[in-house]
Amino acid sequence: MISKNCPEVGDVGSEAEIVTENENENVEEECDVDVDVEERGNVISSSNSGPLEPFIGMKFDDVEDAQTFYKAYARRRGFSMRTNHSRLSKEEKKLIAVDYVCSREGFRHESRKQKERTIPEPAETKIGCKAIMAIRKDGEQWAVTKFVPEHNHELLTLRSTSLLRGHRGVTRAQKKLILTLNESGVPTRKIMSVLSKESGGDFNVGCIGKDVENFLGNKRRKLFEEGDAQRLYTYFLDRQCKEPGFVYSMQVDENGCMGSCFWANARSRAAYQYFGDVVTFDATYLTNIYKMPFVPFSGVNHHHQTIMFGCALLVNETAESYTWLLRTWQEAMLGKAPKTIITDDDKAMAKAIVEVLPNTTHRLCLWHILQKFLEHLAHVYNKFPDFQKDFRHCIHETITIDEFEEEWTSILLKYGLIDNTWLQNLYNRREMWVPAYLRSTFCAGMSTTQRSESMNKFFKDYVHSSTMVSDFVHQYEKTLNARYFKEKEKDVRTISTRAILKTGYKIEEEAALVYTRKSFMKFQDELFSSQRYKSTKHQSDGESKTYGVTPQCKESPVYYVTLESGQEKATCTCHMYEFMGIICRHILCVFGKKFKLDMLPRQYILERWTVNAKSRAILEIPTSEAHVTTQDDPTMRKSKLAMQFYEILELGSQSIQKFNHLSLALDKVHKELLLIEDGQEKNSTNDSVMLRRSSTGANKRTTKIFEK
């Protein structure tokens, strides 16, 4: 038969007849046509050994040959074809006749024309064209019994014919490439650019952007049918088998439906042990098809790069959900709590943090706070042009708490905001978001504005609003791998290159050996800038002395550095070291005057910024850092074969003789591989069935960390 999806019908006289009509698309596209037939139909044969036009009495060995021949003929002439009638024998129900017609045969049904539509009616394609090639069973072969070559419409050029639906199709090789590009976050228009480049031009691709979108949509629908939650659970089990340090937790309700879930790989868990002193915790990314809030735990590593400490998908944003998540996350991180956690201004989140992390400093993300100012004080911004400048100086430029309080009061009076209840409520929580109050709180130098923007950019290229949960975790792993690779790049750069020094101080040479390159550049900037400052003794109190540090030839701003007598220990009113962990230019200015900057004081070297930040082994978390990918890995095998084939491809395209030789060889190897594949599939059938049975229903236990 032409297709395994053709419907069965009752008896009609001596023959059963199947009539399939479609207004705007070919029947053959709806049926599961074999891939080689589909691909052969898109190629015009250059052979002159056979007839180029059908004739009555022409014989074919099978239906597929007849269909392929007429499709190739239609392509050359400039039209597309479809299967119109398929007749079955009365007794045996076997196919005995098929009519192939022009896709513009017939007319659209009146009932469909009159039907109320919610979307614009598509243009009519059927105009009663009579072109046809009918075949009928003749012994063991098929014979052409009717052929009408004339059309009642204009025929297209050979180039334009490739854009007709009947001659479009996504080949097996293209499907593989499309899936790979789609998983990497490449949009459809760029996928089409790649296909065009690979095919030698747009007209040679064989499909259009809509075909790519339909293919990806069909893949997503099939995944829905398989069960998104079950696929997610299967993925977690597979990851845990391959990576013992991988952990996950899933909530399941009484009906067996998936609730919130959390997961973290071994790298993320180990990274937290080194750099988990400051964590950002944000639920503002709605990046999956179910609109489940995506909650990433992130921080900053020794190269000042964003790193992940695990993530979760929540069914809602209640205090109960956040409490479950924080407890689960802390358990996965070996019970260690961060020193500082930065979040959005969310009451449910704040309640959970107080309950689960009572000893952690909770700081609000300044970026989110400032966005709310624009919303609640829009009338002030519009009425007073100077408000933005005054407000920015008050928030960002004030150094001490007294300076902030003075400027804040001045702004309220100047712009008539004394009675603004929203502003008063925010002011009551100023210790959680105003920089002047938080300068002495260690935040690893994390600028909340830049970090939030960085996180948005980090994920937007990989996940979209239509991403399924089970696909989401795959995309999340891609982002982690990309980040890990960038970290390794920085490691190699720090080890294999030498920093360029800007001063003659020995302290700079020592810092270049101790710090990672990015951390050293921050220190170097402070050291170099310290030469543009001067220090004068301000007061002396017992064993401590205070110096006023100002820019050269200026009287302000004044930073006060307190130096303990007989010790290389100092504090500065800018609190850069307390906030970031890098000694500031003001202290270096005083050190330069007192100690000639011969050495970097050990108490000012924070290990998290050094080249040895990850030298301590985390024995409680098994990692796969030393794992070497072997030929047992399918991705590695595919990559190696692809590199080999590209070399052969270049040789095979150099001449027609080499092309023909390579084409024959590939056909032979292809058939041999299919035979090997068939044999393996028979042996593995039972194993795959058992796996499905064992995993069904297993996801009903959950709410605890699952660790191998």
UniProtKB/TrEMBL annotation:
One of its GO terms (cellular component) is nucleus. Keywords: Metal-binding, Nucleus, Zinc, Zinc-finger. One of its GO terms (molecular function) is zinc ion binding. It is found in: Nucleus. Residues 685-700 have a biased composition (Polar residues). Residues 685-708 are annotated as: Disordered. GO terms for biological process: regulation of DNA-templated transcription. Its main location: nucleus. Residues 559-595 form the SWIM-type domain. Belongs to the FHY3/FAR1 family. Putative transcription activator involved in regulating light control of development. This is Protein FAR1-RELATED SEQUENCE. It comes from Carya illinoinensis.
